[in-house]
Amino acid sequence: MRPSHLPAPPIPGGRIAPSALIHVLSIVQRAYVVPQRVASSAPSQARRNLSVLVKSKARCEQTVTSPASSRSRQRTISTPANEKYREYASSAQAVLEHEHDPPDHVDYDHDQRHYVTSQSSHDPHSPFPDGSAPLSSAGAQQHPPLTTLPYRLHQSLLRWKQVSFTPVKFRLQFEGRSLAPMTLASTTTLSQLCSLWLSQATPSDWAWLGGQLGHMVSELTSQSPQSPDPDPEVLRVGQALRAYALAVLEQDTDARAALFSSRDERPDWQIKFPLPLALRALTRARLDEWQLARREMVQAISSMVNRDSAILRSEVSCLNEYARLADVAGREEEIVDLLVAGNKRLRHTVISGSHEDPGKTSIANFFSSGIARLRHPADWLTARMVVSDSNPRWIGNQLGPLFVKVFAPHPERAHDALLIVHALQAADISVPIEPALRVAVNLSRAGSHQKAIGLVAYIREQGVAPSSANWSRILRVYSSAGDVEQAEATYRALEQTDQVDRSNRFDLASAYAGRGNVSAVSNLLSTDSSRPLDQDIRALRVMHLASVNAVDVELAKVYFDKINALQPSVPIFNRMISFYAAVADVDNALATFDLLLDYGLPPDRASYTSLIALFAHRRDLVNARNVFQALLDAQIDPDAIAWAALLNAEVEAGNWLDVASRWATLPSDIQSHTSVATVVLKAFVLLGTPTSQVLALYRSIKEPTKYLWAFAIQSAVDNRDLTLARDLYEEMDSTAAESPHAPKPDVYTFSILLHAYIKTDDSESAGAVYDEMLKREILPSSVTYSMIIDSFASASGQQSFETAHDFAMSIHRHARAELNRARGTVSENLFGPLVDASARAGESDRAKAYFDLATSTSASIHTYTQLMDAYRRAGIIDSVLDTWGTAFKMACDNTSNKVKSLTSTTLATATNTRADSGRVSATTRSPDNLLCFPLSVVLDSLSSVGRHADVQRVWSSVKDAGFGFDSQNYNHYAMALARTGDIEEAFKVVERILIPRWSEIRDRRIAAKRMTADLPPAESTSASPDDQGETAIADLPVSAAFRPPNRRHEHRWDQSTEPALGWKRRQDAITLQTLTTWRPTDVLWRPSFLTMSVLEHAYRQLEDAKFRRVWVGLPADEGEMEGDLESESGGANGPGRAQGESDAAGDDAEVITFPSFGNAPLRDAEGNPKKITPSAMIARLNRKYFKVMALISLYRRKKAARSEQERTAK
Fold this sequence. Notes:
With 1210 residues, the chain is mainly α. The protein contains 57 helices and four strands. α30 runs parallel beside α32 (605-617) and α45 (826-840) runs antiparallel to α46. The N and C termini lie far apart (145 Å).
């Protein structure tokens, strides 16, 4: 017979349902296991311990009947087992058997199979009728009531993730059932509410929950005699959760008061339920009290670690929320600082992960994620490895290897992991082998092969024998880097362990493929008899890679087709597009891209970037921009590599303002990316920026690549500072010797130095550089050989030329095609110097023979220009004109490609639209300076034989095609016009194009630095009657070419004559200003000495004709000449009459000829012979072109002074 003062069980007969007791026992045994795990395992576990349950029940009945006060009885009942019973009472209620009929005073929800306590109307917040316990006897000490939720609501809350349960749904169901706040008063309910609210709640949800918890806490803490003693854990969780709700609502004062009420004075080892502490830490973080937040979160996590059971979902939610709040506050080091502040057991748990205690995996993952959030983990670790009171020694010894393990699985953080390894290496702390090798593999995949090889070398130096799995990783690193010798040695080591598998063979085959050794790849993969080679997609991909690196276009196409027949993929298409781009095969690259679309495969970022790089190589900016726009239209976010490719297209086209504006809009992380920084440094070098400025940008880059080193050395060479160039080379070499991760001098570095010494006739140093290349087994490129051939071909004597010939033929017989050529094909580089040498010798036939060898595979504007120069020197003008026609057509074709499959925007064509001032609005070719050098050659050739009509036709064709003219083109055009008799047009070019720009440049404080974005425009035609009816000069200024054929040697600006540059500013501001204003080629915009010599000579012939009156009479058509004469002289009272012209013209005026120019006649603007007297022509030139006349006078004075000096010297 049970005592009368105990609450009666809610079933007839006074017996507890076996299923309820089984569930209670399961919960008690499993303590704080997540409730949803109980359903499947608890019944079977409980049935095995049913006898224990019966004995426990008997002991409870004996205990509560002992004669003691009600308070002592209550304390006796609150044994650990009974505490857990109360905490999980609602879960026990949830599984009461359906076959028992409910008592009269309890409502039963038949749909939910759950007992719900009746509500009294007099107290809406009390779950019990009349304010008493529902099943207690009169006069007895009341037990704390069982608080519960309806079954379905409770189950939805337990499984809120699976059933997509939200705070809004919970509120609706809670209020729809008119439930009291006290129904929330259980640790299970509050724990699940915490998890749900932290994940999805809005401010209105937090406001509702805070109100409900306020009522619940108020009732639990009321001191009325009828109120039961509150469960301390329920009270702590409720108060802490309410405090956080108030903090979310920014009610800081109330939140601090609630925090004070929820404090726990127990020591850490007694805290078994750390959720209140975690919630308090979140509240402190919300209140920006991070020191207190960290202390309480460390206590909470330590309690989680010390507890035997697994981590609750609500506790995981608190950890995730803490990490989120730290991110929002910009405290990226907060989570790692938590780990540092924790105890030894916590660190052990995090470092061991889930190996020793799977239930603590969430804690290990929490700290691993926190470590991964560090933007500069190596810097954090290095700063704290300095042993002090605040930084104990264990930080480096324990957290260092942990950092490597955390970052090793993330390929995108491979460089950060490498820096961590460097920090540990410097501190003499051992690095875990397996994670470090994973870092090396990731570095190889990212293309940092030298760093990966250096890391492998360091690991092997530690003297620890790698396992077969680690040998496989080492093999992969060497194979990715193309180090065939080391890959073969590693493969043999694997063979000794009998652990060689198929993947190892493919890794070694990849190393052979990197060298382009097709036969070795085929032989190795043929040993695998699992399937035929032509049916193995992986083998076909390696064979395709080998054929690409062998630059075998036909074989690559064969394997490409075989792969597509089995399994087409975007990466294979990207490789083929890049291959065609590397060999400058635009048509096949675009066709491959179209084929990718035909297969229904979506192009990715690499597909578009490859095409952008192709058009950048061709300096076709229009289509490069089209492809980039297509990438954006495809909703693909460009990465730093794509941005760098587009910037490189702008740089190659010489669009410096576009480079500056586009670079300025990039995010800072993209600007600082190595690929983008490389393009900017390249722009600096091509712009002729002072070496000090180039080095300032170079030094700002943390880990310079081999290309950055090469650009720095090239800048020193361009500025004729060979001592600095040599110092930079030695610095690069010593840095590589000290750090295996730094780039070593390669073929680019040695070629730059070799060319510098050859140009300065330092044959001894040039030979030493070449010998050092061979000593280091660095294979020279065709560009390197071209420099050597040019040095022999340029030397005097037939023997030197024959040596150059033999050397070129020998190299050509053994050479193979090169990828990513920047200066033409192998044949062009080898035989181009011989074409130039033959041209200088006046041997056009031999030049043509070498031209045929140079263009055996493909031709370029450069090689055609070399042949044109050979014909010019030989005086074969028709051949010059024919070759020009071929080069002109090639230039138009090279700048007219349309990418129809990419975008509807096609390459623009020349519009020749003139502004009111006569200036063409814009050129429409890219690059617009492609024909500058060959145009000067053909103009000089045609003017030498007086072919004025051809001069005008060639000039007009270039203008109409949309190309521009550089300063030398205008100088050559003026000379060509003067030599063919069009004196006035020649004067006009100098007066209105060259002199205005020269004047503006002379007025600058720094001649190489523009004050405005553009050069000053050409002077417009004046309103003078003499100028009426004149056509404007085509003003299409472009920068001088900086790629072959070029005038790069003319670009150097003498820095010693200019004021010191104030570069002491932020590097990004300096970069932007340099790209915007620095134009040293502007100094070329001036009348050249040769131009003034020709104009002065033409003017002198006019003066001589005035006194000799030796003119050639030419018939006029229907009085046309008389009309021109009347227009020039102005008649007796005409407006054009000037002093000196009165007696100079008449009806018998003849056409002036220029004996020194092959008796070329004086011509008008249309090219027809012009009848005017010498005096009238001289007066006209003096009146209209006084600036040119001033320069002619200056020229004559300097010439006279020079002659006087020479005469005096004799």
